[in-house]
Amino acid sequence: MEIVIADKSHSKYASLICDTIEESAKVRGTGIAKRTPEYIITKLENNNAVIALDGDKFAGFCYIEAWGHGKFVANSGLIVHPDYRNVGLAKKIKKVIFDYTRKKYPDAKIFGITTGLAVMKINYDLGYRPVTFSELTDDPAFWKGCQTCKNYDILTRTDRKMCLCTGMLYDPDEKKNPKEEIHEHPYNRKVLQRLKNIKQSIFLKNKKS
Ligand SMILES: CC(C)(COP(=O)(O)OP(=O)(O)OC[C@H]1O[C@@H](n2cnc3c(N)ncnc32)[C@H](O)[C@@H]1OP(=O)(O)O)[C@@H](O)C(=O)NCCC(=O)NCCS
Q1: Closest atom, ligand 1, to C-alpha of 30
Q2: Which of 12, 64, 144, 175 is most buried as measured by Cβ atoms within 10 A of its Cβ?
Q3: Is the pLDDT of residue 178 over 80?
C-alpha cells in the first residue's frame, strides 16, 4: 500500500472516489456534501489531495480545502474503500494529509466537521479539539457545501450555530503556547461518542415532530 500526494495522473480515479463517498453515505444513512469528479480533479491538479493505492487499486482518499483566504484549512472528503477498512488506513491517510497541510499552510487553523466517530477519534489523536461552529470559518463558501446534505434544514434552523456534525479544530497557536493539558485522558474519546448520541437524539426528535 502506498499513500502519496495525488496529482493529475490520478484523475482516472475521480469518478470512483465520488461514487464511493456517495455509496458510503447512503449505507450510513447520514448526510454528506456532494462532490463531483470535476471538483476532485481540481484537487489532484493542485496537489491538494492524498491518495492510497494498493498497486493500481484505489484504497483511500482525502483532500485539502482552504477557506477564509487561507486562515482556515480543512482536510475533507476522507474515504476508505470498503475492501480496506478497519486496518488503520484512514488513520494513516489523515496523518499524511495533516503533516502535508501543516507544511503547506503552517499558520492556518485546521478544522473539520463530521458525524463519523472514526474521524472524531482520528482528529482527536492528531490534536484537534471539539469546538462550536462559531470557532470555525465563517466563509459562506464552506457552509454552502452543506446545502447538499440531507440535514441542511437543521443548520439553517439553528442559524448555522449547530447541526448533527461536530466541529473539530487544530489551532497551531494553541500548540505553540499549550495550556495545561487536561485533555489527554483516553476517556475523553468516549465523551465524543456521548456528544454525538445526544445531538442525534435532540435534533432528530425535533425533526420528526
Ligand atoms: C470512516 C472511515 C474513513 C474509517 O476508515 P478505516 O480505515 O476503516 O479507519 P481506521 O481503521 O483507520 O480506524 C480509525 C479509528 O476509528 C475506529 N473506527 C473505524 N470505523 C469506525 C466506525 N464505523 N465507527 C466507530 N469507530 C470506527 C477504529 O476502531 C479506529 O479507532 P482506534 O484508534 O480506537 O483503534 C471509513 O469507514 C469510510 O470511508 N467510511 C465512509 C466515509 C466516511 O464516513 N467518511 C468520513 C466523513 S466525515
Answers
A1: 44
A2: 64
A3: no
Question: For residue 11, how far is its CA from the centre of ligand 1 (angstroms)?
Answer: 25
Interstrand relation of 109-114 and 72-80 (parallel, antiparallel or unpaired): parallel
- Please say whether the structural domain 2-208 has been given the CATH code 3.40.630.30: yes
Residue 90 in contact with ligand 1 by CB distance below 6 A: yes
Q: Burial-class residue 47 by CB neighbours within 10 Å (0-12, 13-18, 19+).
A: middle
Closest CA to 73 of 83, 82, 63: 63
Residues in Cβ contact with 62 at an 8 Å cutoff, skipping those fewer than 6 apart: 49, 50, 75, 76, 77, 78, 79, 93, 94, 97
Collapsing DSSP to helix, strand or coil, 60 comes out as: strand
- 118, exposed or middle or buried, with CB in 10 Å at 0-12, 13-18, 19+? middle
In angstroms, rounded to a whole number, what is the distance separating the alpha carbons of residues 38 and 33? 15
Which residue has the least CA distance to atom 12 on ligand 1? 88
Helix (H) or strand (E) holding 173: helix 172-176
pLDDT in tens, 99-140: 999 999 999 999 999 988 999 999 999 999 999 999 999 999
Tell me the sheet residues that pair with 147.
Answer: none
Tell me the CB-side half-sphere exposure of residue 61, using CA atoms within 13 A: 27
| Residue 70 DSSP label | T
Q: Is the CB of 119 under 6 A from ligand 1?
A: yes
Put simply, whether the predicted model's pTM sits higher than 0.85 gets the answer yes
167 C-beta closer than 6 A to ligand 1: no
